[in-house]
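FAQ

Q: What does a record look like?
A: Structure on top, sequence underneath. For example:
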């Protein structure tokens, strides 16, 4: 099994069990583990004192896998044992809990790029940023309300640039794009007689959310005094038989790139309408020996799971688990293009279409 170390407040804590680390392309990493709790020992009381937000790190083979803050400390005592369940999240996750400090308000950005806005927000919390993509043109105006959570503001801006927010293993705020074309790191083909990936896959479980699936998405720019309103509509070529429209009002930041804002919404519709869980992989590593990572591609063929055609999926989340006797990984998959405003060229349960089929292109009209 992999050599995993947990550091609390910079000190190696060797008494943990049942660790679980989750890494994601579009949310912040988390870490959970259990540990014995001996109240008569000062070091245990000091380590797990509630509301201390101690630094928490996870090392894999000596390399940093997770850098965050210990948030939840839940003790449990029974007749036979006493232990504590611990949960932490990556350093930038504080941006989703808190508002900007009063000393930074009022806060307004004019003609600022997403990179500039993210950097200034992170500096207020002593966080670093890792911006791996061009964040596009500046936003004309971005204003913070006193009750605005920084993460909500950044996430809304990032969606308009087809970017997603996560964190690095060092605890930096990460702005990046999802991959849409790359060599798959694994091929999960469960058809009888198919070539295996080197280990069995016990369960492939798709989940569908029909109520999050629409035939068209329209973004409205409200009418202003002496100026008529307008709207952009993106149509879903895979749903022509039913009318299921979804509309939203564009805010001031979205109006500058109305078409891009609609593309982002319809792309994320495909992230919400279908997920595929590949569960209980008996290794943390792909067939090449590299650690499974979010923002990579895999191929899945599982006819009894309604994935009739070999289909590429984007790894949205990786969950690693280790106990005394087992080590497994789970993957949560979505269709490629879900975070880049692209409509899939094919769906797993439909006949394969030619990639040049005009129905697979995005259509937008302005009125």
């Amino acid at each position: 099994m992999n050599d995993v170390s947990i550091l609390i407040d910079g000190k190696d804590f060797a008494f943990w069990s049942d660790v679980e680390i989750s890494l994601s392309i579009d949310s912040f990493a988390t870490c959970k583990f259990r540990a014995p709790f001996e109240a008569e020992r000062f070091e245990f009381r000091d380590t797990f004192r509630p509301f201390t937000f101690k630094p928490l790190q996870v090392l894999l083979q000596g390399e940093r896998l997770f850098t965050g803050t210990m948030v939840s400390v839940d003790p449990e005592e029974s007749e036979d044992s006493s232990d504590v369940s611990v949960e932490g999240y990556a350093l930038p996750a504080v941006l989703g809990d808190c508002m900007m400090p009063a000393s930074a308000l009022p806060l307004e950005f004019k003609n600022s790029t997403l990179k500039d806005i993210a950097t200034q927000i992170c500096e207020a919390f002593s966080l670093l940023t890792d911006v791996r993509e061009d964040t596009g043109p500046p936003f004309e105006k971005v204003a913070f309300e006193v009750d605005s959570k920084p993460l909500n503001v950044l996430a809304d801006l990032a969606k308009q640039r087809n970017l997603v927010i996560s964190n690095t293993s060092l605890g930096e705020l990460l702005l990046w794009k999802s991959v849409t074309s790359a060599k798959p790191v694994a091929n999960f083909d469960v058809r009888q007689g198919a070539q295996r990936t080197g280990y069995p896959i016990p369960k492939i479980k798709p989940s569908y959310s029909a109520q999050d699936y629409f035939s068209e998405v329209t973004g409205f720019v409200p009418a202003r005094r002496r100026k008529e309103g307008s709207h952009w509509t993106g149509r879903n070529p895979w749903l022509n038989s039913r009318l299921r429209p979804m509309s939203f009002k564009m805010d001031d930041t979205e109006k500058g790139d109305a078409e891009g804002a609609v593309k982002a919404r319809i792309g994320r519709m495909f992230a919400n309408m279908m997920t595929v869980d590949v569960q209980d992989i008996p290794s943390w590593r792909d067939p090449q020996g590299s650690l499974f990572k979010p923002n990579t591609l895999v191929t899945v063929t599982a006819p009894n799971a309604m994935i009739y055609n070999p289909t590429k999926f984007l790894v949205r989340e990786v969950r690693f688990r280790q106990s005394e006797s087992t080590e497994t990984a789970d993957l949560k998959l979505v269709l490629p293009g879900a975070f880049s405003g692209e409509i899939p060229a094919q769906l797993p349960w439909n006949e394969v279409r030619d990639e040049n089929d005009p129905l697979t292109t995005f259509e937008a009209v302005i009125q």
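Q: Is there anything notable about this one?
A: Residues 98-176 form a domain with the Phage tail protein beta-alpha-beta fold fold (CATH 3.55.50.10).
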